[in-house]
Amino acid sequence: MHKSWYDVLDPEFAKPYFKKLKQFLIDESTVNTVYPPMEEIYSWSRLTPLDRVKVVILGQDPYHDVGQAHGLSFSVLPPTKPPGSLRNIYKQLSQDITGFTIPTSGDLSRVAELGVLWLNASLTVRAHKAGSHSKKGWESFTAEALRQVLAREDCAGIVFMAWGLSAQKTCDSIGIDEHLVLKSAHPSPLSAHRGFLGNEHFKKANAWLEKNHGPGSGINWNVLGAKTN
């Protein structure tokens, strides 16, 4: 975990819920495969230090198939092809952002480094069993991480993208004031046509960041389509 996050989340590690969660993960990993790999559970914190967060994109839990989850919501590493939800995210980006080229890679690390926090409510999952680690304690931990984002004294405002009911409930529960919360349907192929596609969230986010943080402060989403991918 990046020091900026560890310093503010350290008190959570001593709480009963986290000790119980830790033991659950130890027991779970002895009999089942757990994703992402243990060394990647906190990769979101290393790629997006606390003081760099400009945009928060909430997921529910990690991808649960082989070679997918690596610690960022919606993101997958090569050679894994972008899953359906991410393909729909790319479709919306291509509509919102001038010059955006849909990438062949599903790795979102490059925009994470620019201040986009791709955070799942639950940070682990049992292989091939979606939602299997929900309500084990992760939600309390990640909610505190979000509260620490809101508590930053140097913060000029954060954009929260809450796609789907679960993410929207999380935003409601932590009480977000003086920030921008963008809500829509989830980008899953099952629901994207119900309001995700066409939501203009990336366009709206950059416009809001430019207004509140100053010229040039929007996210350069085009780095995802750069040839280095």
What is the terminal separation in angstroms? 25 Å
Uncertain stretches: none
Tally of helical segments = 8
Report on the biggest sheet: 4 strands, parallel
Strand content: 5-15%
* Quaternary assembly: single chain
User: Order of strands side by side in the largest beta sheet?
Assistant: 3-2-5-6
The assigned CATH architecture is: 3-Layer(aba) Sandwich
Q: What is the total tally of β strands?
A: 6
Provide the domain count: 1
Kindly name the structural category: alpha/beta
Q: How much helix, percentage-wise, in residues?
A: 25-40%
CATH level-four homologous superfamily name:
Uracil-DNA glycosylase-like domain
Rounded to the nearest angstrom, the radius of gyration is: 17 Å
Order of helix and strand elements from N to C terminus: HHEHEHHEEHEHEH
Instruction: Categorize the overall geometry.
Output: globular
CATH topology: Uracil-DNA Glycosylase, subunit E
CATH class: Alpha Beta
Active site: 61
Main location: mitochondrion
Protein name: Uracil-DNA glycosylase
Domain Uracil-DNA glycosylase-like: 46-209
Write the layout of secondary structure elements.
Elements: H1 3-13, H2 16-31, E1 34-35, H3 43-47, E2 55-59, H4 84-96, H5 109-112, E3 116-120, E4 125-126, H6 138-150, E5 159-163, H7 165-174, E6 180-184, H8 201-213
Parallel strand pairs: 2-3, 2-5, 5-6
Antiparallel strand pairs: 1-4
